[in-house]
Amino acid sequence: MQAIVMTETGAPEVLVPRAVDAPRPGDGQVLVRAEAIPVLYPETKVRAGEFPVPVALPAVFGFQAAGTVTELGAGVDPALLGTRVVAATSGVGAYAELVVAEADSVTVIPDGLRTDLAAATQMPGSVALALVATAALAPGETVLVEAAATGVGSALTQLCAARGVRVIATAGGAEKARLAREHGAAEVVDHTAPAWADQLRDLLAGGTVDVVFDSIGGDSVTPLLDLITPRTGRVLSYGWLAGVPTQLTAVDLILRGLTLTGCAGPAWLGEVARRRADALDAAARGQLTVGIDSVLPLTGAADAHRKLEERSALGTVLLRP
Ligand SMILES: NC(=O)c1ccc[n+]([C@@H]2O[C@H](COP(=O)([O-])OP(=O)(O)OC[C@H]3O[C@@H](n4cnc5c(N)ncnc54)[C@H](OP(=O)(O)O)[C@@H]3O)[C@@H](O)[C@H]2O)c1
Question: Residue 52: is the preceding peptide bond cis (ω within 30°)?
């Protein structure tokens, strides 16, 4: 079968199309014929060697694939055979025609939801649902969603807007600002502009932000500290697009009575995994729409990674074997 093998850590060129032996499901596993493989932002970090590589290299790359279950290992519920699922791997094997995954890592795609939309929605939708639950939003609150045009930010914007809170989004450039508004942001500031915190201060006109969903990390929240509601304001740190997590210090928080919640690591990812089915259900009911930027052939995996790194994707990039 055709697959994308990661030969070593490095630039997108380390993702190489190769013919490899088809995998077989072991006990408790399923085999999925992949139809839509989402290219995930964190995967670019694994490929680059900035996040831990879960297996020895070379190995078939990839974390998630959506398609149809074609074979079952011993001990798996026979009802899964022939169903459409989104499968999560342990970080290996998803960029391929045939993907093996633990049966308890697959989420059945609800009737009425297209396989490609399920592939695009599962990761951002489940992360956003976990973040919104953690934020414990109250009526009348104002939230700031960083990088709201695509991915987790777009799902967060939709979920928060549906709860009736005021969403102020950040996005880079006019096209992404338009997308953030389409997702439900009431106002958008351009996080590529210098001193964008001043734009936010003007928008707030003396008010404050109750929750910051921080995907950029680095120094992005530091200039906002005095725009966050003292005593009850919450910062949820779930990404570090800037290269490092938020650099807020204990003193920054203590002096203002703010809470910083870390939304990463194994326990957090367990919380996210428990919301996968809810994310697909929300998409099937039309309550969550994660856009598809493009569908590339499987052999275009390196191009897909470049697209994400150039920040040019306007939605999820999918690979189709
Ligand atoms: N903790 C978790 O459970 C979890 C799960 C999934 C993802 N994440 C993390 O969340 C973050 C967003 O992931 P995503 O899947 O939602 O990705 P995404 O939507 O594709 O986010 C990438 C976008 O972020 C914007 N951005 C802002 N500052 C950036 C910077 N310094 N470098 C690159 N892009 C920047 C860019 O849009 P503009 O053109 O608008 O600037 C870019 O297109 C990533 O850090 C990812 O690792 C965390």
Answer: no
Tell me which residues have their CB closer than 6 angstroms to ligand 1.
41-42, 123-124, 127, 147, 149-153, 171-172, 176, 191-192, 215-216, 238-242, 263-264, 268, 272, 308, 311
Check if the beta carbon of residue 224 is closer than 8 Å to that of residue 209.
yes
pLDDT in tens, 259-275: 999 999 999 999 999 99
Question: What mean pLDDT do residues 183-211 have?
Answer: 96
Confidence band of 54 (pLDDT split at 50, 70, 90): confident
Instruction: Say if residues 53 and 32 touch (Cβ distance below 8 Å).
Output: no
What domains are defined for the chain? 2-108+291-320 (3.90.180.10), 123-267 (3.40.50.720)
- How remote is the CA of residue 241 from the centroid of ligand 1, in Å? 5
**Residue 48 pLDDT > 90, yes or no?**
yes
Q: Are 152 and 221 in contact (CB under 8 A)?
A: no
Please state the pTM of the whole predicted model.
0.97
* Closest-lying ligand 1 atom to the alpha carbon of residue 150: 19
